[in-house]
Amino acid sequence: MSAYKEFTGKTVEEALRAAREEFGAGLNDLDFEILTPGSRGVLGMGAEPARIVAAPRDALGGAAPKRDAAAATPLPPPPARDDRPRDDRPRDDRPRIDRDGSPRRPRREE
C-alpha cells in the first residue's frame, strides 16, 4: 500500500496545510506532488479545488523518490534565439490600422 494520500483545498497552501496536519510533519518532511493548482472560477462559478498527493519522507525511507527521479532527468535545451539585428528580421507587410479603422502612419525613425 502506498504511503501517499490525496489532499484538497481552495489553494495549494490549504491542501499542504491539511497534509502537514494529517502527518504531523513540516513542509520539508513531506514529499508531495501538485495534481491540480485549482482555480477560483468566474465570480465563484466553475471553481476547482487544488489537489495534491503527499507522504511523509520517513514513511518513504527518508528519501523523496519522485524528486530524485525528476532531478535525474535533464531539462531540454532552451529554444534557439533569433539574434539577428532587428532590421534583418522578416517584416509583416500588412498595412497597420488604428482602432478607428484609419491607416496608421509609420513611426518616425530617430
Provide a quick synopsis of the model.
The chain is α+β, with helices and mostly antiparallel strands and 110 residues long.
List the helices and strands and how they pair.
Layout: E1 5-9, H1 12-23, E2 30-36, E3 50-56, H2 65-72
Antiparallel strand pairs: 1-3, 2-3
Can you put this structure into words, describing what you see?
- The structure is a single chain.
- With 110 residues, this protein is of the alpha+beta class.
- It has a domain at 5-72.
- The protein contains two helices and three strands.
- Strands 1-3-2 form a three-stranded antiparallel β-sheet.
- The longest helix is centred in the first third of the chain and has 12 residues, at 12-23.
- The chain is elongated, with a radius of gyration of 25 Å.
- The chain starts with a strand and ends in a 38-residue tail after the last helix.
Q: Give me the strand/helix succession.
A: EHEEH
- Structural class, judged by helices and strands? alpha+beta
Proportion of strand residues: 15-25%
Distance between the termini: 70 Å
- Regions with pLDDT < 50 over 5+ consecutive residues? none
Q: What's the total count of β strands? A: 3
The number of helical runs is 2
**Main sheet properties:** 3 strands, antiparallel
Going across the biggest sheet, name each strand in turn: 1-3-2
Q: Over the alpha carbons, how many angstroms does the gyration radius reach?
A: 25 Å
